[in-house]
Design brief:
Layout (H helix, E strand, L loop, with lengths): L3 E8 L6 H9 L5 E8 L6 H6 L4 E4 L7 H9 L6 E6 L3 E2 L4 H6 L7 E9 L6 H10 L17 E5 H6 L10 H11 L3 E11 L6 H18 L9 H23 L2 H28 L1
Parallel strand pairs: 1-2, 1-4, 2-3, 6-8
Antiparallel strand pairs: 4-7, 5-8, 6-7
């Protein structure tokens, strides 16, 4: 009999895509998904779509969503030794997505895995570049201090039982949890052949809020002496490097308009992140 994996799906107003995501989950081969959907106040028809599938639905009141609390709630919904997480707008691209996502757990040192995410067809060229750098063949992210994404991921239950998700942190709860497990000696594995489609074309205001939140979170997650907060090291140098990289990639791809968009796009990202980081460090 195929092994059963608990799949926890977080949903909020994703009626446009959640049905396709669920169909892809229930089409999986090699493992049997048992799906629990946690909806945090959808008003666009998502609930009706969720109820049309063979899953367990948990509804939480609008405005009460706390990432770590919801992740812990999902983990408690079954006894399965491996629990997968999938955002409702993160759609598996083949019928071995789940099997390949959980395959690295054959190594007893693995605490969690995360799969490859590819950008949607309507993604802005700069978003496509970001997703390819963060995921792709994994070579870029392997050089970074740390990287993890909960949108398509899996967690070993025994590790979570010893160290649940922090319910106080409001941003980057997945980075927080996975970073601390690495510090304990656990491995975080990239399952690059487990592929799902997921991306967002954020407005500048949305990007500003997101990156400031990530900066504040990083101030609490990583050692204080590892942060670059200076004007040159924390803003100008990484901004310039990102723009140069973007322009080269966009020109190679024939995306001249995206190359012109890069300076403002990257400035909002870097300046907002640095602002949030400095605020977080000042509050400590």
């Amino acid at each position: 009999m195929e092994p059963e994996v608990l799949v926890v799906m977080r949903c909020l107003n994703d009626a446009w895509i959640v049905g396709r995501t669920l169909d892809a989950v229930f089409d999986q081969r090699g493992v049997r998904p048992r799906v629990v959907a946690i909806d945090s106040g959808s008003r666009d028809g998502s609930i009706e779509i969720l109820k049309g599938h063979p899953l367990t639905l948990i509804e939480i009141p609008p405005g009460t969503y706390i990432p770590g609390r919801v992740l812990n709630l999902g983990m408690r919904q079954g006894p399965q030794p491996i629990v997968a997480f999938l955002n409702s707008d993160c759609t598996p691209q083949h019928d071995r997505w789940l099997e390949r996502l959980v395959a690295p757990f054959s190594d007893g040192r693995v605490a969690a895995t995360y799969g490859r995410q590819v950008a949607r067809p309507d993604a802005h060229p700069l978003v496509v570049l970001d997703y390819e750098r963060a995921f792709g063949d994994g070579s870029q992210a392997a050089t970074w201090r740390h990287f993890f994404s909960m949108a398509s991921s899996a967690v070993r239950r025994s590790v979570w039982e010893a160290s649940p998700f922090d319910e106080a942190i409001r941003y980057s709860e997945d980075v927080h949890w996975s970073w601390h497990r690495r510090q304990e000696g656990w491995r975080i594995a990239y399952a690059g052949d487990s592929i799902a489609m997921h991306s967002h074309n954020y407005t500048l205001a949305e990007m500003r809020k997101r990156y400031a939140g990530e900066g504040r979170a990083d101030s609490a997650i990583f050692p204080r002496d590892t942060h670059a907060t200076g004007l040159l090291s924390g803003l100008l140098r990484p901004w310039a490097a990102a723009v140069v990289r973007d322009v080269a990639a966009c020109l190679r791809a024939g995306e001249a308009a995206a190359a012109f968009a890069s300076p403002l796009h990257r400035w909002v990202q870097r300046a907002s992140y640095r602002s949030g980081l400095r605020e977080g460090l000042a509050d400590e």
